[in-house]
From TrEMBL, chain A:
Keyword Transport annotated: yes
Domain Leucine-binding protein: 48-392
Similarity remark: Belongs to the leucine-binding protein family.
Signal peptide, first to last residue: 1-25
Superkingdom per UniProt: Bacteria
Name used for this protein in its record: Amino acid/amide ABC transporter substrate-binding protein (HAAT family)
Lineage start: Bacteria, Bacillati, Bacillota, Bacilli, Bacillales
Organism per entry: Ureibacillus chungkukjangi
SUPFAM superfamilies (UniProt xref): Periplasmic binding protein-like I (SSF53822)
Keyword vocabulary terms for this entry: Amino-acid transport, Signal, Transport
InterPro entries: BCAA_transport, Leu-bd, Leu_Ile_Val-bd, Peripla_BP_I
Gene Ontology terms: biological process: amino acid transport
Keyword Signal: yes
Automatic annotation (TrEMBL), chain B:
Name of the molecule in the record: Amino acid/amide ABC transporter membrane protein 1 (HAAT family)
Organism: Ureibacillus chungkukjangi
Keyword terms, alphabetized: Amino-acid transport, Cell inner membrane, Cell membrane, Membrane, Transmembrane, Transmembrane helix, Transport
Superkingdom, taxonomy of origin: Bacteria
Family: Belongs to the binding-protein-dependent transport system permease family. LivHM subfamily.
Gene Ontology, cellular component aspect: plasma membrane
């Protein structure tokens, strides 16, 4: 306990000092740019800076670095093809260490020091929300590749975060797809839900799944929760097992889900397990083991095995650069850059408000993770893919339209 | 059947707490210091075992022994560098130093390898034994066996060997022990070595059992083991074992009743209750305050 306190104290002092430093640095660079005169405005005119505020280390580092790799490939392609209206894109990456407070700091840095035109927001919903205020305040259009919680773009009181957008679909949709898959494809009647209670993402999924499965005539026989960073799930899983469900929905992130899947199979739970895009990481297979993952499913944004031509073209290009098969986060990071590019081109300027307007008016934009139009709540309306784990590999199962 | 399964779950968790609690209790017994860096020695043990298994491709038992030996050395270094010169300082100074050492270890590890988690390789063959619908994995039986063997070994060292006798003497009265010709410094170092070796063993066992290890993994188990040590009566070796196992079972029962989100809270409520009702713990001796 004492440790926690000192940590907190240290963190707050550090945060305060870094804020002051950031402000000072901001003043400084402004000073030099006016002093420099013509030369500095020259350099800003031939590049478009896009900030990337991502989880490059910490608990969900796998998401952030995947998005960064996807975005880099897209930037490389766009620059090779002549950039946006003749201007090259420069990607400014900042690590937010998978923490809310660091995500805010990173957004302040990108807004005040690097003076970016647009930002790629963090991967997880909580971290995106931590940057929303900065985006609105500095009028910098911000697009998250994978923040799926509804309240990323829309606040609890129904007001819109004007400058926040996303490339992915939202959680309630994933929950509904999972529930329909469970009742229609797997014929599940008695289901259990085991959700991460510390994440808005997981709670949102659990809620919409529950509503849909009950509408489909299923019964929720057990509803349990865990907290991020737990390692021992056996006692709760034993409790779930005794309720005898024929399907278990586990919305959460791969770090805990990997252990849950492993421990569930160790306890002899044979029922199909299902989750959402939070499972999608190679670390999941390492933690759970390929064998335990058999008979598990996820809803996701895309599959690299989707036979569509544009998708296979992207997969080839990606393999050429990174020599691995792209996962959904790679694809979303890639798409996010193209989404921003499309808006800047239509806006015809690098002015924040013009780009914001163009993003909100996006119609039938065809990207790797699907073709979408943006609705009035800044959410793209697009399809979801169901994947099955077979011996540690994701296998394309089906595609579900909204 | 559910409850027998839960008991098995609780004992597996509790035996890890017990192994860590032993180090807390031994160090407290001998120099009255709550060594908050102990949970981080546990973390180092897990990482040493991981690199031994993943990089050098050796089995579980050699990795366990390497981890125990290296942790023992690390424990002695921590004692010699950080705590020895504070032996006559106030207890709060030593306690704060312990917190400092804990943060130093955690962030040094993060500095060198980053904060991302690592998955323990599967070193032990996995088979399940089904007894009346209770599924017990061979790993949990092995873990329990290793824990019991280490505890018996510890009892043997403390009660039947010369160094054990010296430890008990120093714990009782360091000045009198010194007058009797016992090398107090070496005895304290030996206590740190043994306690840290047990934490190292707990780290490897934790890794094999729970798979995921990361640089801050020692914080919560460290605090839980501290609670276990206080519960059993800090300074008492059998107390740490009983305290650890009971805490594991209590946490499991809390989850089993459907209050999984209250599990950590339950552990800390136990700490508060025991400090109010019986500060000396179950096995602790009631010492009269010297005025």
């Amino acid at each position: 306990m004492a440790e926690k306190k000192t940590l907190k104290r240290f963190a707050s002092v550090f945060l305060a000092s870094s804020l002051i430093m950031g402000a000072l640095a901001g003043c400084n660079s402004e000073g030099t740019s006016t002093a420099g005169g013509g030369s500095s405005s020259d350099t800003t005119s031939d590049v478009i800076k896009i900030g990337a505020n991502l989880e490059l280390s910490g608990a969900v580092a796998s998401y952030g670095s995947s998005i960064a790799n996807g975005a880099e490939l897209a930037v490389e392609e766009i620059n090779a093809a002549g950039g946006i209206d003749g201007k090259q894109i420069q990607l400014v990456k900042v690590d937010n260490k998978s923490e809310n407070s660091e995500a805010t700091n990173a957004a302040i840095k990108l807004a005040t020091q690097d003076k970016v035109t647009a930002m790629i927001a963090p991967a997880t919903s909580g971290n995106v929300i931590a940057t929303a205020q900065i985006a609105n305040q500095y009028k910098i259009p911000t697009v998250t590749a994978s923040g799926t919680a509804p309240n990323v773009t829309e606040n609890e009181d129904g007001t819109l975060n004007d400058f926040v957008f996303r490339t992915c679909f939202i959680d309630p949709f994933q929950g509904i797809v999972a529930a329909n898959f469970a009742s229609n494809e797997l014929g599940a009647k008695n289901v259990a839900i085991y959700a991460d209670n510390a994440s808005d993402y997981a709670k949102g999924l659990a809620k919409s799944f529950k509503e849909q499965i009950e509408a489909n005539g299923g019964t929720v026989v057990a509803e349990e929760a865990y907290v991020a960073d737990d390692t021992d799930f056996k006692s709760t899983l034993t409790r779930i097992k005794s309720a005898n469900p024929d399907f278990i929905f586990i919305p959460g992130y791969y770090e805990e889900v990997g252990l849950i899947v492993k421990q569930a199979r160790e306890l002899g739970i044979e029922a199909p397990l299902m989750g959402a895009d939070g499972w999608d990481s190679p670390t999941l297979v390492e933690l759970a083991g390929a064998e335990a993952l058999n008979n598990t499913f996820i809803t996701n944004h895309y599959s690299s095995q989707d036979p569509e031509e544009t998708i296979q073209g992207f997969v080839e290009a990606f393999k050429g650069k990174y020599s691995e098969s792209p996962n959904a986060f790679h694809a979303l990071g890639y798409d996010t850059v193209y989404y921003i590019k499309d808006a800047i081109e239509r806006a015809g300027s690098t002015d924040g408000e013009a780009i914001q307007k163009a993003l909100a008016e996006t119609q039938d934009l065809s990207l790797i993770t699907g073709t979408f139009s943006v609705d009035e709540k800044h959410n793209p309306v697009k399809s979801a893919t169901v994947l099955e784990y077979v011996d540690g590999n994701q296998v394309f199962n089906s595609k579900v339209n909204p | 059947m559910e409850w027998i399964q839960q008991l098995v779950n609780g004992i597996s968790l509790g035996s890890i707490y017990a192994l860590i609690a032993l180090g807390y209790t031994m160090v407290y017994g001998i120099i009255k210091l709550i060594n908050f860096a102990h949970g981080d020695v546990f973390m180092l043990g897990a990482f040493i075992g991981f690199y031994a298994i993943a990089r050098w491709d050796i089995g579980f038992f050699p990795a366990l022994i390497i981890s125990m030996v290296l942790c023992a050395i690390i424990g002695v270094i921590i004692e010699r560098v950080a705590y020895k010169r504070l032996r006559n300082a106030t207890r709060i100074a030593a306690l704060i130093t312990a917190i400092g050492v804990s943060l130093l270890i955690e962030y040094t590890v993060i500095f060198f390898r980053g904060a991302s988690p690592e998955a323990y390789p599967e070193v032990l063959p996995k088979t399940y034994i089904d007894i009346f619908g209770v599924s017990i994995s061979s790993i949990s039986i092995l873990i329990l066996a290793v824990t019991v063997v280490l505890m018996i070994l510890l009892q043997f060292i403390v009660h039947k060997t010369k160094i054990g006798k010296a430890m008990r003497a120093v714990s009782l009265d360091p000045d009198a022990a010194r007058l009797m010709g016992i090398n107090v410094d070496n005895t304290i170092s030996a206590t740190f070595a043994i306690g840290s070796a047990l934490a190292g063993a707990a780290g490897v066992i934790f890794g094999v059992y729970y798979t995921r290890i990361e640089p801050l993994m020692g914080v919560l188990p460290g605090l839980k083991a501290f609670i276990a040590a206080v519960f059993g009566g800090i300074g008492s070796i059998p107390g740490a074992m009983v305290g650890g196992l009971s805490l594991g079972v209590v946490e499991t029962v809390v989850s089993a009743l459907g209050f999984s989100l209250w599990r950590d809270a339950a552990a800390f409520v136990i700490l508060i209750l025991i400090l109010i009702l019986k500060p000396s713990g179950i096995f602790g001796k009631n010492t009269r305050e010297k005025v």
